Amino acid sequence: MEGLWSKCDGCGEIVYRPDLEKAWNVCLVCGHHGVLPARRRLELVLDEGSFEEHDVGLAPKDPLQFSDSKKYRDRARQTHKALGERDAFISGVGRIDGKQVSVGTFNFAFMGGSMGSVVGEKVTRVFERAIDLRCPAIVFSSSGGARMQEGIYSLMQMAKTSAAIARFRETAQPYISVMLHPTTGGVAASFAWLGDVIMAEPKALIGFAGPRVIEQTIRQKLPEGFQRSEFLLDHGMIDMIVSRKEMRERLAAVIGLLG
């Protein structure tokens, strides 16, 4: 029976795993949104069979010859072997309710969804394809921020992706940013917060630095729920919180209004 049951991180209840997977990893008892694999997320929101992946061959290099507990190139190679993904972002084109979209999603399982030069390039190409196709752009963000193993090459992606969004604005098509748990660091400080419409999943941690770092820096206790999507909605930082089961329907509605 091993592997058939899963313990919910929200309420602690034991849930039958096949039922949980059918519910897109949303707890059937308390509604807690667990981790959803990146490709499953694309299945959740896109019309069946409509996704066409692009930029498959892009893979990270090691420009700084970086090494911590292991060499960066070895870490990236091992992660690729374990996950079957070359980096922390999947991109391409698809359809939602029959309407074409340029779409990309982070894969947090790949080095914490960190943004290196390849991730920045793939995010940029989401907007460049949307310009060429004159269609909406959608990015699902889930990241620990810039990839330290690439240093300044990683930080440059903040400006690069933001510039791509500025060019995309000229098409008058909407950019919908969906923030997942967690969305932090350089990703939050750049393209994730530049959407025409900003959505978030329930109780997602969203911000630049984490709450523990902030508390240690300012030496003050933070408000309850600080940096969670509900707190940000109350303070006007995001437009809406959308449960996973309603995500496809809500995206279709926004595209129908703005696309």
From TrEMBL:
Domain CoA carboxyltransferase N-terminal as annotated: residue spans: 4-259
Subcellular location: Cytoplasm
Primary site of residence: cytoplasm
An example Gene Ontology biological process: malonyl-CoA biosynthetic process
UniProt keyword annotations, A-Z: ATP-binding, Cytoplasm, Fatty acid biosynthesis, Fatty acid metabolism, Lipid biosynthesis, Lipid metabolism, Metal-binding, Nucleotide-binding, Transferase, Zinc, Zinc-finger
Record gene name: accD
Note accompanying the cofactor annotation: Binds 1 zinc ion per subunit.
Reactions catalysed: N(6)-carboxybiotinyl-L-lysyl-[protein] + acetyl-CoA = N(6)-biotinyl-L-lysyl-[protein] + malonyl-CoA
Enzyme Commission code: 2.1.3.15
Quaternary data: Acetyl-CoA carboxylase is a heterohexamer composed of biotin carboxyl carrier protein (AccB), biotin carboxylase (AccC) and two subunits each of ACCase subunit alpha (AccA) and ACCase subunit beta (AccD).
UniProt-annotated binding residues for Zn(2+): C8, C11, C27, C30
Zinc finger annotations (C4-type) as residue ranges: 8-30
A single GO molecular function term of this UniProt record: ATP binding
Functional summary from the UniProt entry: Component of the acetyl coenzyme A carboxylase (ACC) complex. Biotin carboxylase (BC) catalyzes the carboxylation of biotin on its carrier protein (BCCP) and then the CO(2) group is transferred by the transcarboxylase to acetyl-CoA to form malonyl-CoA.
Pathway named in the protein's UniProt entry: Lipid metabolism; malonyl-CoA biosynthesis; malonyl-CoA from acetyl-CoA: step 1/1
Cofactors, names only: Zn(2+)
Similarity-based family: Belongs to the AccD/PCCB family.
Signal peptide limits: none
Top enzyme category: transferase
Superkingdom of the source species: Bacteria
Organism: Vulgatibacter incomptus
GO cellular component terms, A-Z: acetyl-CoA carboxylase complex
Pfam families membership: Carboxyl_trans, Zn_ribbon_ACC
Name of the protein: Acetyl-coenzyme A carboxylase carboxyl transferase subunit beta
Record-linked SUPFAM superfamilies: ClpP/crotonase
